[in-house]
Design brief:
Length: 210
């Protein structure tokens, strides 16, 4: 990595029961399932082979538990960062996609078609993008030339990738990021680069999409 670049390692938290049941989680604060606990240890062992300078985590307990495993493996304290909290999916949380479509079909269709639309009772995309952008700007200024691990969620990492790679935002999934996966970005002066996405080589078996 060239001097002055910021290397970001994006760690999606291990699975919860709702991941296993393919339910929409959002900001609902759930613990790791037994599968998720195993995934947290596996990704932590992977990160122990890296020279990580700082570790940040979402305040939700599934991310905290994953960060604690990484902290132990890397001998590194973690910082809780609220801007890594998962997007608020409002009334859809706890439902399967089929249930959300049955109850909130028009809202779900609008959310998929309109990148400015929010979930029913949830967070506006503009708010999600603003907090991820401000986080990236701060990290770039604070940690130039370092390797930083962020423990977070599929939705907030989707937004972070859109912002970092200057891709037009969309609400529905564009990047598949499994539970316990590791992705890598380089923030560079001229342009940011995705080095790899959704690396699950350290997991057995691979995590869930949801």
């Amino acid at each position: 990595m060239p001097d002055g670049d910021l290397r970001l390692l994006l760690v999606r938290h291990g699975a919860t029961i709702w991941n296993d049941e393919h339910r929409i989680i959002g900001r609902t604060d759930l613990p790791l399932s037994p599968t998720g606990q195993k995934q947290a240890l596996q990704v932590a062992a992977r990160l122990a082979r890296e020279s990580v300078d700082a570790l940040y985590t979402s305040p939700l307990q599934r991310a905290i538990a994953t960060a604690e495993a990484v902290s132990t493996a890397c001998g590194l304290l973690y910082t809780v960062e609220d801007r890594l909290r998962e997007t608020d999916l409002g009334n859809w949380e706890g439902l399967t996609l089929d249930e959300a479509a049955a109850r909130y079909g028009a809202d779900l269709a609008a959310w998929r078609d309109d990148p400015t639309a929010a979930p029913t009772g949830g967070e506006l995309p503009a708010q999600l993008l603003a907090r991820t952008r401000s986080l990236l700007d701060e990290l770039r200024g604070r940690h130039a030339g370092q390797t930083i691990a962020l423990v977070g969620h599929g939705g907030v990492f989707q937004a972070l990738l859109f912002v970092a790679l200057d891709i037009a935002y969309r609400n529905d999934w564009l990047f598949y990021l499994y539970n316990g996966s590791l992705s890598e970005l380089w923030l560079r002066p001229e342009r940011n680069v995705a080095v790899h996405l959704n690396d699950t080589a350290h997991l057995a078996p691979a995590g869930s999409l949801d």
